[in-house]
Backbone:
């Protein structure tokens, strides 16, 4: 198993403390302290696994004497009805330790695998078009590093990791400036004057007039917010050779291919991380010996 970063170790420690700070009276009462065994994480639904090393690190953090092994790497498509292709990872050693860490380990790998699986569906839907599927900052507080990693495992790309990763002038920024009579052009000018020359400027636009204004101001990226497919196509036409276009808002698996067909460069999908279904994985105890 690859070692996880100190940041992830700290997340694991907090998660273990959340579940085990006052012990596990069920396991302590029922399982002999010297009982040994092996357990396997298996898929109960088809999907793309992510976070295998994180799950195994949970067991090792709780009990360093446990032996862990990833059966498949992150990014593998698992198949629930196939015995061999459903196996994800295994852990061996003290049974009580395995049972105590089970839920925390599964919580990590199920959620991350759900994100990777959802992302892969979106990526597959836009195959043949230029659009790249990217995530947003709509992540679980404290889990952004892991959730954005899971998006990459699923074949997607990452948008800003934090506010400091770029300038994105949104509707509320523009609304705040209107009190002084400023609009998109002035917002772009102010951003360019006060930010590093290495940072690109992205502007959220909602209609053709704002598209024209942002392009005239020299915005490098246009965030096409909740536009109709027809409006997106027109915005792409106007921005060609002048700015990168990003579709955002109301993107679903049902319409993402139609959106991609407009020619946009990027499609950002908040649902990759905020509205996912965790992949059904379970831990099966095997080979118990006293």
Residues:
């Amino acid at each position: 198993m690859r070692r996880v970063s100190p940041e992830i170790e700290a997340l694991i420690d907090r998660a273990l403390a959340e579940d085990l700070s006052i012990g596990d009276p069920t396991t302590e009462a029922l399982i002999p302290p010297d009982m040994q065994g092996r357990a396997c994480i298996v898929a109960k639904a088809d999907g793309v696994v992510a976070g295998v090393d994180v799950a195994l690190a949970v067991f090792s953090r709780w009990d360093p004497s446990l032996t862990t092994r990833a059966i498949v790497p992150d990014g593998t498509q698992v198949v629930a009805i196939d015995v061999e292709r459903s196996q994800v990872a295994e852990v061996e050693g003290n049974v009580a330790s395995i049972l105590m860490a089970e839920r925390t380990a599964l919580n990590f790998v199920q959620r991350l695998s759900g994100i990777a699986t959802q992302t892969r569906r979106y990526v597959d839907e836009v195959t043949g078009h230029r659009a790249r599927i990217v995530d947003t900052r709509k992540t679980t507080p404290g889990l952004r590093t892991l959730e954005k990693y899971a998006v990459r495992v699923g074949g997607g790309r990452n948008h800003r990791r934090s506010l400091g990763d770029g300038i994105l002038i949104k509707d509320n920024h523009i609304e705040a400036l209107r009190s002084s009579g400023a609009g998109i052009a002035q917002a772009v000018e102010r951003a360019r004057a006060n930010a590093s020359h290495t940072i690109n400027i992205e502007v959220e636009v909602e209609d053709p007039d704002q598209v024209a204004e942002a392009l005239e101001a020299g915005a490098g990226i246009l965030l096409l917010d909740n536009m109709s497919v027809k409006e997106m196509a027109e915005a792409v036409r106007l921005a060609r050779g002048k700015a990168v276009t990003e579709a955002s808002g109301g993107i679903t698996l049902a319409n993402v291919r139609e959106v991609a067909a407009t020619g946009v460069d990027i499609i950002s999908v908040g649902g990759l991380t905020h509205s996912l279904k965790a992949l059904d994985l379970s831990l099966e105890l095997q080979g118990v010996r006293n």
